[in-house]
């Protein structure tokens, strides 16, 4: 499973992931907008029902929403057009698990489930080299959303494929 501030590189991809604690860590106005919404809604514990894509119209092409199906499995519920374009296809409806045969799918499930488990937003900066799209550098955030039962039921994120410059130390 991915740890905070862990860098993954090599055959899979080049991504730096860390817990997101302050909007000052963000370069993208889009990721900053979503993070500031998340922080200001219910004191940083928004319910899934608090999130309405229509309240974030300018972000719709850049949004993704995962549903936590089980402790080992997630489903991509919303996949904005810019996200699909960066990845070369839409993954809406796709279910992936920590036991997926494709390493990227298993890693994605581990990561999204770790956001849900820690109940903290996370920042990712890197490239899509793992799917032969290394020319795409990005900044994205992923924020937990709670269900009525008090458990994290979804993770909402914003993916900005235009804002992914990394310093040599990953900041």
Write the layout of secondary structure elements.
Layout: E1 6-8, E2 15-19, H1 29-40, E3 63-70, E4 73-79, H2 81-87, E5 95-97, H3 103-118, E6 122-128, E7 133-146, E8 152-160
Antiparallel strand pairs: 1-2, 2-6, 3-4, 3-8, 4-5, 6-7, 7-8
Describe this structure in words.
The protein is α+β, with helices and mostly antiparallel strands. It has three helices and eight strands. The protein has helices spanning 29-40, 81-87, 103-118, and strands at residues 6-8, 15-19, 63-70, 73-79, 95-97, 122-128, 133-146, 152-160. It has an eight-stranded antiparallel beta sheet with strand order 1-2-6-7-8-3-4-5, with helices on both faces. Strand 1 and strand 2 (15-19) form a beta hairpin. The longest helix has 16 residues, at 103-118. The chain is globular. 35% of the residues are buried. Residues 1-13 and 164-171 have low confidence and may be disordered.
Key terms:
171 residues; alpha+beta; 8-stranded antiparallel beta sheet; 8 strands; 20% helix; 33% strand; globular; disordered N terminus; disordered C terminus
User: Which outline best applies?
Assistant: globular
Uncertain runs are 1-13, 164-171
What is the number of E strands? 8
Largest sheet geometry: 8 strands, antiparallel
Give the amount of beta strand, in percent: 25-35%
**Average pLDDT reading:** 83
How would you spell out the order of helices and strands?
Answer: EEHEEHEHEEE
Assign the structural class, choosing from mainly alpha, mainly beta, alpha/beta, alpha+beta, or little secondary structure.
alpha+beta
- Strands of the widest sheet, in order across it, are 1-2-6-7-8-3-4-5
Radius of gyration: 15 Å
